[in-house]
Amino acid sequence: MTPALELDALTKRFGEKVAVDRLDLTVEQGAFLGLLGRNGAGKSTTLKMVTGLLRPTSGRIQVLGMDLGTDALAIKRQIGAMPEDMALLDMLTGPQYLRFVGRMYGLEDAIIDRRAAELFEKLDLEPGPKTAIADYSFGMKKKVAFCAALLHAPRILFLDEPFEGIDAVTNRTIKDILLGLQARGVTLVLTSHILEVVEKLCPQIAILDEGRLKGAGRLEELRQGAESLERLFVDLVGGAQTGELSWL
Ligand SMILES: Nc1ncnc2c1ncn2[C@@H]1O[C@H](COP(=O)(O)OP(=O)(O)O)[C@@H](O)[C@H]1O
Ligand SMILES: [Mg+2]
């Protein structure tokens, strides 16, 4: 089967800074991959390149066998994305924003509204009918971004730190939705800097540090060779600082 995602020496430089450094990675269809790494490891940059928000400096991205350099539009029809900054339109209300997104995907208004209502109910998102997204709480914005990523029933879903700033109940709901999608064969890729998030949810992980891939594989296998996954993670990325603060 064609892989859902194939990265070949993917690289992004910002001036001198190499944010993503010759990243090779394959994600099979139906996989649920957790891209793990410390702050600044290059996770968001990778996801932005893969979802077409940022142009790579070099390297190749293939999604479902199509090349992002030449088939961007066809790829975008198949993927859903929740980027780091959520990329919402602040002056619209949540339902208006979903209309906007849905129409971009060529969905009929009636279908968009039905799906939006279902998503809003499931996520317990109840904004006032006239409230602009600008006035939503952080968690509400995150929910809208999540809804927008799901609206067109994508085959692959890319989520950047989906559980950041989300309450425990919503956390649970989103996890349930993701597991339901996985059961239906949707490929999922999420980033997180929190080991526990990835450990609980993702059978497959890839660890990034300073833009480089430090380890990748099935969670069980990575865990087997190590004392614990935390130990493995800290060993792979290094730099855990212990000791006291000088003035305390
Ligand atoms: N637009 C940008 N301009 C300059 N440097 C950037 C830019 N975006 C990201 N970086 C740098 O690239 C590195 C990786 O960032 P990022 O991909 O956001 O990391 P992560 O999501 O893993 O926390 C960081 O050092 C960050 O400061
Ligand atoms: Mg990030």
How does the SSE layout of this entry go?
Blueprint: E1 5-14, E2 17-27, E3 32-36, H1 43-50, E4 58-63, E5 66-67, H2 72-78, E6 79-82, H3 94-104, H4 109-122, H5 138-150, E7 156-160, H6 168-183, E8 187-192, H7 195-201, E9 204-209, E10 212-218, H8 219-224, H9 229-237
Helix pairs in contact: 3-4, 3-5
The structure holds adenosine-5'-diphosphate and magnesium ion.
Features:
248 residues; alpha/beta; Rossmann fold; six-stranded mixed beta sheet; 9 helices; binds adenosine-5'-diphosphate; binds magnesium ion
What does this structure look like?
This protein is of the alpha/beta class. The chain has a single domain (5-237), classed as Rossmann fold (3-Layer(aba) Sandwich), CATH 3.40.50. 37% of the residues lie in helices and 25% in strands. The strands form two sheets. The protein has a six-stranded mixed sheet, sandwiched between helices. Strand 4 and strand 5 form a beta hairpin. Helix 3 (94-104) packs across helix 4 and helix 3 (94-104) runs parallel beside helix 5 (138-150). The N and C termini lie far apart (57 Å). The model has no long low-confidence stretch (mean pLDDT 93). The structure holds adenosine-5'-diphosphate and magnesium ion. Residues 14, 17, 19, 37, 39-45 line the site of adenosine-5'-diphosphate.
